[in-house]
Structures are given as structure tokens and as C-alpha cells.
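User: I'm putting together a teaching handout on how multi-component assemblies are represented. Below are the sequence lines for each component of a complex, exactly as they appear in our records. Could you produce the 3D structure of the whole assembly as C-alpha cells, so the students can see both representations side by side? Please keep the chain order the same as the input.
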Amino acid sequence: MKHADKFYESQLNTINEKLVKMGSLLEKQFSSALVVLHSRDEQLAQKVVDNDDNINQLNHEISDFVFQIIAMRQPIADDLRFLFCTIKIIRDLERIGDHITSVAKKATRVSKDIPSEFIEKLSNLGKQASVMTHDALNCLFERRLSQADKITKRDDVIDELHGAFISEVLAYMKKHDDVIPDSLSLIQMSKAIERIGDHITNIMEEVHFLIEGQYSSD
Amino acid sequence: MVNTIITKNLNVYYGDKQAINDISLHFLKNKVTALIGPSGCGKSTFLRCINRMNDVIDICRVEGTISLNGLDIYSKEIEVEHLREKIGMVFQKPNPFPKSIYDNVAYGPRIHGITDKKDEMDLIVETSLKKAGLYAEVKDRLDDMGTSLSGGQQQRLCIARAIAIKPEVILMDEPCSALDPIATSIIEELITDLKKSYTIIIVTHSMQQAARVSDKTAFFHLGNLIEEGDTSKIFTKPDHQKTNDYITGRFG
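Assistant: Of course. Below is the structure of the complete assembly, with chains in the same order as your input.
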């Protein structure tokens, strides 16, 4: 049911729209960064860096807007839960944006001599995180928790893949001390993707609170 | 947790029209319960049943039971005057008597025969005004007319008048709707203070006020009780969609 006050209704809709925009920008950024991983395309990497400003901008716009609504409308019940979660979720989204930018920037620095299987593994890790991001945003926008378990499991997969990847890269570094800077970049990229998984987990906790009115006991 | 007031299957009719539909509710001792709901939902009718103010309305018929400390307040043995010694009321608009501040407070104890001694009455007046947070402001002009006070002071005078007869329950029907934000916050602070000694039931249209002052909230709609529970729960995650829609302003 819509709010009797149409202006209030439109204010809340605006926040939701901006949140959707932030999410879709982020997904686009994610796929570009994964392309850079393979192509080392510096122009595309720069585009990812530049577009991150739009995500940061949306973060500020949404938080200013939520702040205004809290002050002017004193929201309660599901409206309050939505605004409260939004404030927390946009921080995670903004941080995810930073990690994606970091992956795009570092990807351009990795030498072509690095074995392609490392790039493949990173790319697979990135895809897992990208799907996870997509699923979590769907849960948020559709206000449903049906995907929650699947998303949590995917985070476990990411953590495992990340751990295994680090071990492999370390072993490789020991044998090839001339590629330490590249190997370090690989580790940093893997870490960035692993952190994205953690932020998505945070977002899912907020979605749980938004829908159920309490945090998940897990 | 002790229940002071319990209503069981309460039905209230005005002629053919049913205003309250089978409401069973408990009111905890020393707690503030807020009754909320859109205009015409029956919350004021419900409140007025608790001290039998509907008795004077000829077409009003009350079925079911309301008990105060286990005694049926509608039973023949209970005299309405005696009941109102136990259950005081504060109304939407401050309504001091056209008498002095002193006499406004002393009126109840006098007619209920609580005391006829001057020094005892002085003490009741002083204590009641202190409890209502008004004494410091009026102690040097107790002979001034009650109506000469500001709106917020008048409402506190009415609260002092209500508590002078040492009731157990105070009913408040939108006590702050005619007051400015400062006077409102003084009354709200007072309500929180008063609940230590009394059981308070407050009807309010202000969701923020219900959230600020009450421990329990009951939501009425079209004469039905939709939901009741802890205020902190009702205002963050109510169980019923209708409650959520009403408190967030989604009712057309």
C-alpha cells in the first residue's frame, strides 16, 4: 500500500531508484574489471576508475537524502528499517566499488608472462563474487530471502578459492623471484575479491533485518 | 507483571452501530499503554468505558467485562463515583474548573470526603501539584484562577486534579493535542514519572508520542483490536500489515 502522503512516497521511491542505480553501476564495473583481467586494457581500467566516482557520488546523495527524510519525516516500522538498512548497505556498495577499482588497476600491471591459469582462477573467483553481488541486490530489491543460503555458501566457496589461490601464488613466487611484484598484485586482487564477498555477506544481513525486523541468528 | 485493568470480550454499541468489537486487553500495573488508530476506530470509546463515562449516553450499550484489580467495574455493587476515585481522567483540552488553582486540586478530595482538615488538604494540594510538576510555578499564586494559567500549565493542573484523589489508573485522551512542543515534552516527561505510581492508558494520534511515552501499544481499527504488544516492537516490526500501514501513514 502506498503512503497517503504522495511526496513522502516519491521520496522513498527516489531512494530505492538511486539504490538500484548504484547496484547496476556496480555490476557493470564488475564485468569491466573482469574484462581488464584478461585484456590488461588500460583505457578500460581507467574507465572503471573514473566511473567509481559516480558510485561514490551516489553514496553521498543517498546518505544525504536518507538523513533529510529521517529529520523531516521521523519514519517508523518498515520505512525506518528500509532507510536504516540503506545507510548501511550503501557503505558496503561503495567499498565494493573501491575493491573493483583496485582489481581493474592492478590487473593492468600484471605481466603477460604470468601463467594464464592464475588469471583464469582469479577470473573464476571474480565471477563468483559478481554473481553473488547480483543475487544479493536482487534479494534487496525484491525483498526476499530465498537466495540467502545460496549467497552465504558462495561466500564460503570464495574464501576457499582465495585461500587455495594464495598458496599457489606463494609457491610460484618461491620458484620465480623475478615475478614478486606481479605475484603480489595477484594476491592483492584475490584479497580484494574475497573482501567483496564479505561486504555482500554484510548486505545480506541487512536485507534479513529489512525483511524480518531482526538480524539473522547465524 | 500485575494486570490492573482487564477487558474481556468487550462490545460497545451506539444504538445499532457497533463501535467496539469483542476486545480483550490487559493493562499492566505501572506501565503506560498507548491506544492508537485512525479517527473513529473506537479507541476513545474504549477508553471512556474504563471509567464508565459512556453510562450517561442513553443509546450506548456495553457488553463483556472490564475489571479493575479483579472487580467487575460494571457490576451493580460498584458505584460510579467510587470507581472514578480509582480511575482518573485527563482530557484532550485542558478543562480546569473556573476556580482557584488550589480549589481545582482540592475539589476531588473534598467531594470524595478524603479530608476536611485544612492542613491535610494543603498537603494533598502541594503533593499533587508537585507530582504534576507544577508546584514550583504556582506556589505563590494558589489563589489565582486555574484558567489564568498557560495551556500546558492548565493540563498539568488537570493532572494534579486527577491524582489528588490517589487513583490507581489515569486515562489520558490525547492530553497534548492542544499543547506546544515544550509543554508536550513536559507532560511526556511527567507521564514517564507518573507511571511509577499509576497505571496509565493514553489515547494519542501522534505516533511519535506513543513511541516516546508508552511501554505497550494497542492498535485499533474499525472497532477491532488489530495488534497489541511492546511499543518497541510495534514501531519497528509490527506483526500485522494493517498496523504497519497505519503507523507509516499508508492509510488513505
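A couple of points students might notice: The longest helix of chain A spans residues 6-39. Chain A has one domain: 6-212.
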